[in-house]
Amino acid sequence: MGLVLNIFQWHLGMYAWDYTPTYRGFDSFYGYYTGAEGYVDHVNGIHASTGYKGLDLRNGTEPVWTENGTYSTELFATEAERIIASHDTSKPLFLYLPHQAVHSGNPDNPLQAPQKYIDKFPHIQHPGRKTFAAMVSALDDAVGNATKALSARGMLENSVIIFTTDNGGPAAGFDMNYASNWPLRGVKNTLWEGGVHGTGFVHSPLIKQPKRTTHELLHVCDLLPTIYALAGGDSTELKNLDGTNVWETISRGVESPRVEVLHNIDPKRKTAALRYGDYKIILGEAYKGAWDGWYPPEGVTTNRSEETNHAPRWSGPLKIKCGEKPTNASTNCKPRDNPCVFNIKEDPCEFNNIADWNQPLLNFLMGRLEAYSATAVPIRNQPTDPRGNPKYHGGVWSPWINLTDTGGSTNELFGSLQ
């Protein structure tokens, strides 16, 4: 289809060049390979205490040493604008722009934002929430600037902008962050709705029924066939997919073809969750239940937050209504001991475990999890390989295995280090 593909964050493996973006179909790459780093120095020092620390910023395959001092949200926005400005408009463009914001950075300074953005929020007293708001504001400007660049090139009228998240927010200090999933339950990296229920929007002049909200089931797996079809491909020709083209749901508001979402099956943690229709089953316990609660934004004294006067002026379907919280909300579900079931449509905040009096439903949902589990591949996580330490690669996080030079399998290669 002549697509031009661009990407900014990877986090999908980089032990060999074969697994980096420009070797996996992307025409260009400007960003970082790992999962987190400093917003200004672009150094990943998450494991600095164990001797692993190095630059993680590249243009293509080349390290970028010249941007120390440039805030990553603004850096990536500028590069996105450059790509748009130089794009050959006779070809489709797929611009994948996964910003670093608002992820936690290095442990010594996890949340960072330019002072000009922090100064926008004098009404927020909590320092973590203030900086988080500043980071969101910078991200908002970055998205706006990319949109203006599309408009300036005459590309916006035939573009689809998808803004979404990969998980719920790390709230209440989880991962040294101060996001908010309120009033949903849980945080990032848990299977409660606060960890898996993502909000987002799609903007496009191509949408037939715009300016509306939907609670239809959609999953990240649906994006591939949907975008492929929008670019002119026949999504029915794509094989072995878990996703479906959901453009008619997005554009016209028709019922989503998706009825089920597998949230996760983690045999190491012994946790799992699945949504089928309105119902969700959850098993197992992450962090020994330490993050199973409901976490209002810092500064909340009632059901309203310190940001009340600055809240978005919308109402209706976007507002989550929890209903009355029962006194046993924290105790009626103990997923470490027994599976729990919730009606997410009626009980989005997971107050009421209905498993005990819905045995046929529980059996059905357990059967769906078992069916998925039967097709799962074994865990392939490998132990730390010291050869990947940036100190052996000029102080840069870099691929360290040449697959064409090794005769053994990956498991054999790493097995020698155990």
Can you tell me about this structure?
- The protein has 418 residues and is α+β, with helices and mostly antiparallel strands.
- Helices cover 20% and strands 12% of the residues.
- It has helices at residues 72-86, 115-118, 127-152, 193-196, 223-230, 247-252, 359-374, 410-415; strands at residues 4-9, 28-32, 43-44, 54-55, 58-59, 62-63, 93-96, 161-163, 201-203, 260-266, 271-276, 279-283, 340-343.
- The strands form four sheets. It has a five-stranded mixed β-sheet with strand order 6-5-2-1-7, covered by helices on one side. A four-stranded antiparallel β-sheet has the order 10-11-12-13, with helices on one face.
Count of DSSP H/I helices:
8
Determine the strand fraction and express it as a percent band: 5-15%
Strands side by side in the biggest sheet? 6-5-2-1-7
Structural class: alpha+beta
Element pattern in H and E: EEEEEEHEHHEHEHHEEEEHH
- Mean of pLDDT: 91
Cα distance spanning the termini: 45 Å
Shape: globular
Largest sheet: 5 strands, mixed
Low-confidence stretches: 302-315, 406-418
Give the number of DSSP strands: 13
Specify the helix fraction band. 10-25%
